[in-house]
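Why do we care about 3D structure at all? Because function follows from shape, and shape follows, mostly, from sequence. That is the central idea of this module. The next example makes it concrete: a single protein chain, its amino acid sequence, and then its structure expressed as tokens.
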Amino acid sequence: MKSVCIIDDDPEVRDTIGSLARRMRLTSDAAGTLTAGLELLSRESFDVVFLDVRLPDGNGLAALPEIKRLPDAPEVIILTGMGDPDGAELAIQEGVWDYLVKPSPIKQMMLTLQRALRYREERRCDKAPVSLSLAGCVTASPRMQPCLDQVAHAAWSSAAVLVTGETGTGKELFSRLIHANSSRAKAPFITVDCASLTETLVESTLFGHKKGAFTGAEADRVGLVQMADGGTLFLDEVGEMPMSLQKTFLRVLHEKTFRPVGAVAEAKSDFRLIAATNRDLEAQVEAGQFRRDLYFRLKTIELRLPPLRDRPEDVKPLTLSVVDALCSQYALPPKGFDAEFLSVLEAYDWPGNVRELRNVLERAFLAAGREKTLYSMHLPRDLRIKVAKSSLERGQQLADRVGPAAPQWHEFAAPPPIGRRTLKDYKETMERRYLEELLAEHGRDVAAMVDVSGLSRSHFYALLKKNNLAIPD
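And the structure:
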């Protein structure tokens, strides 16, 4: 029998939805706090969850990633007493089924619940296990699972894909993953660097030319569009494409035909298009810097890659992968890591994302030479300085927020050298510092702290008690 979970601090709301579930011949269970609700979801399997936003012990929206990571995760319907457009946007981005403002009519709740259950049933019937080839992709973060799901979805079709994300997040890597898992995998993957296209040679580069078409055209040349026939054409940094080319290229996308420079007849190319950009194309459209019709043509499927700072769980596996590759490249035995080496990497915010991480690791690797272990001293000084300053600033913010009863940051600013402390003392100091910074960053949002730390709720509360810390009132 299908089941419903209700997480809401209002007993009347819980009773109303419970009664609605019984009328629909569904089973239900309810919780009045976020903690109790998440424990209920971890113990039992539900088809749909009604989730309040403002709960006594946390924000329901912050718990969405944890709910989505559950095995056979339920569909989520958000219930809130506030009309919050930003909250609605966040909820939909996290994959909720619907966002209802209380009080909602019973009929509306029933229709939403019926549609969510029908969608879940159809998705279960249609969903077949997908085995992806993930060559070169290293990730352990739950934030990347939706991206991998989108890769599988995109690989199944031949629709155009727009991959967006900050510089260095791996847009070309994920574009290649889509190609490698598609029916076109054995055909070419042709890259067009839109940022390097010059006004004078752009059509020749893309569409090719005939001998004698212009001065210097001493032979026929096949363009990149023709080379991608049967495979994938990857437009890197598509936001840099000249406006003069955008109209021409739109026709090529629509008709899959083009005319080489100097040719009389048109040629055909059956390519699959994937485009990538670190720019806000929607803003460029509004500013008149990018064609609206081309923008919508490109984003049939959109894949957004999160920055590395939002998926710190990936720093360690990426580090292991990069350093292993460097050891193989330089024919050196595998290297180990000092705990502080990884701590510094995980504390940095990585504005250059994975590309910057790879560069930093290569610099540290070369600085270490034939040493068997990588230490924080091998990392670039500018990175270590930024991490140290950031830690001191967070410590000062913590001292200002918690007040004089809390340990002052100067107690940690210049601790005794590591070599003069026991390992137990060092671990306890760093553990307390981590918990204090977690509380300073997230306040009363327990769900967010549990999600970020990777701890279970019981372990998290046990560590707070051990260190004489408490969640702020």
